[in-house]
Design a protein that fits this description.
Protein name: Transcriptional regulator, GntR family
Number of helices: 10
CATH architecture of the largest domain: 3-Layer(aba) Sandwich
Distance between the termini: 56 Å
CATH topology of the largest domain: Aspartate Aminotransferase, domain 2
CATH class of the largest domain: Alpha Beta
Keywords: DNA-binding, Plasmid, Pyridoxal phosphate, Transcription, Transcription regulation
Radius of gyration: 29 Å
Family: In the C-terminal section; belongs to the class-I pyridoxal-phosphate-dependent aminotransferase family.
Strand content: 5-15%
Number of domains: 2
CATH superfamily of the largest domain: Type I PLP-dependent aspartate aminotransferase-like (Major domain)
Largest sheet: 8 strands, mixed
Strand order of the largest sheet: 3-10-9-8-7-4-5-6
Pfam families: Aminotran_1_2, GntR
GO molecular function, one term: DNA-binding transcription factor activity
Number of strands: 10
């Protein structure tokens, strides 16, 4: 007979009689009180003993049967599955044993060895100098709510996934915006919508770098981008910056270099703007080395008192520049919306890469 006391170690967060009965039986199977092949109490007798409905007991038995702890059949008494090596019930001492170090891939091992910047303190402060924070009063709340509600109420034939490259209307709007604001001429098919600039950097690293390759990186520069590239096993070639941004005279001539990451419109974190001469030098360097240039235009829209500088990709005639844009600074980092503008030959593989972890883009947000 099953002991009718309430188990001392129920599943965390579980509530209800059915959950308590499930935990009671599973614990007794785990500790050997109910041995393999033993008959389980009938649902009728257990319901009467515990003063619950038979339906509640039956539901617990069905769950245990579905998980392989009990064997049930129409018209027959339920029995403990045999042979059975029951795992320890949640919360027991056996489940708290120290685990051995996990077996990881080369990528995983590199990732665990990479130092990441500490997350900022969430406590409110009077004067917030945190990088990337946007004042909430600057967000167009009313306009955003009207647009959001209009989209929710728009009649659609069906609710289905958006293609991995993103909503066609959004990409078309981005195409026009980039032409007006950033001097960048592209086709909507070259635009890939992502969840912020960091997700844009990740496929650039995974698809364009192998372990043993090298990449050029501004020094100082955006640490999270550097870590993303280093996680591939590629070697970082730090290149100094001055008041004008990247010093192109110091660009590495290493034959293994495959990529350069730059912030030409507003160097991060020093703020220099890369002049036209250096932009041309950088493009010529990329052509000589058959290398890609990742242009992170994280806040190129902002230029006080003057027209924003056109993007580096706007003068790229050789299809070397991958342009990254984001709405984190113009709208809100909580929006998690960014995009890439890709050379045409990279569009298929980047779309495929986005399908693997993210599957589809969001249309509501």
């Amino acid at each position: 007979m099953v002991q009718s006391r309430k188990p001392t170690d129920c599943h965390p967060g579980a509530t209800g009689a059915g959950r308590r009965i499930y935990d009671l039986l599973r614990n007794q199977i785990a500790d050997g009180t109910l041995v393999p092949g033993a008959r389980a109490p009938s649902t009728r007798s257990l319901a009467a003993e515990l003063a619950v409905s038979r339906t509640t007991v039956t539901a617990a038995y069905e769950q245990l049967a579905a998980e392989g702890f009990l064997v049930t059949a129409m018209g027959r008494v339920a029995r403990v599955a045999s042979p059975l090596a029951a795992p320890a019930a949640p919360g027991t001492n056996a489940s708290r044993r120290a685990r051995r170090a996990p077996s990881l891939s080369g990528f995983g091992r590199r990732l665990t060895g990479i130092g990441m910047p500490a997350l900022p303190d969430a406590e409110p402060v009077r004067f917030d100098f945190l990088y990337g924070a946007v004042a909430s009063r600057d967000f167009p709340t009313l306009v955003w709510r009207r647009a959001y509600q209009a989209e929710l109420l728009r009649q659609q034939r069906s609710l289905y996934y958006v293609p991995p490259e993103g909503d066609a209307w959004l990409r078309s709007a981005l195409q026009g915006y980039l032409r007006r604001a950033r001097g960048l001429a592209c086709e909507a098919e070259q635009i890939l919508v992502v969840h912020g600039s960091q997700q844009a950097i990740d496929p650039c690293a995974r698809l364009l770098l192998d372990a043993g390759d090298a990449f050029v990186f501004e020094d100082p520069g955006y640490l999270m981008a550097r870590r993303c590239f280093e996680a591939t096993g590629a070697r970082c070639l730090t290149t100094p910056v001055d008041e004008h941004g990247l010093d192109t005279a110091s660009l590495s001539q290493d034959e293994r270099v495959r990529l350069a990451y730059v912030t030409p419109s507003h160097q991060f974190p020093l703020g220099g703007v890369l002049p036209i001469g250096r932009r041309l030098d950088l493009l010529q360097w990329a052509a000589r080395h058959d290398a890609w240039i990742v242009e992170d235009d994280y806040d190129g829209e902002f230029r006080y008192g003057q027209r924003p500088i056109d993007a580096l990709q706007s003068i790229d005639t050789d299809g070397r520049v991958i342009y990254i844009g984001t709405f984190s600074k113009a709208l809100s980092p909580q929006l998690r919306l960014g995009y890439l503008v890709l050379p045409p030959e990279l569009v298929p593989v980047f779309r495929q890469a986005k399908r693997l972890p993210a599957t589809r883009a969001s249309i509501i947000e």
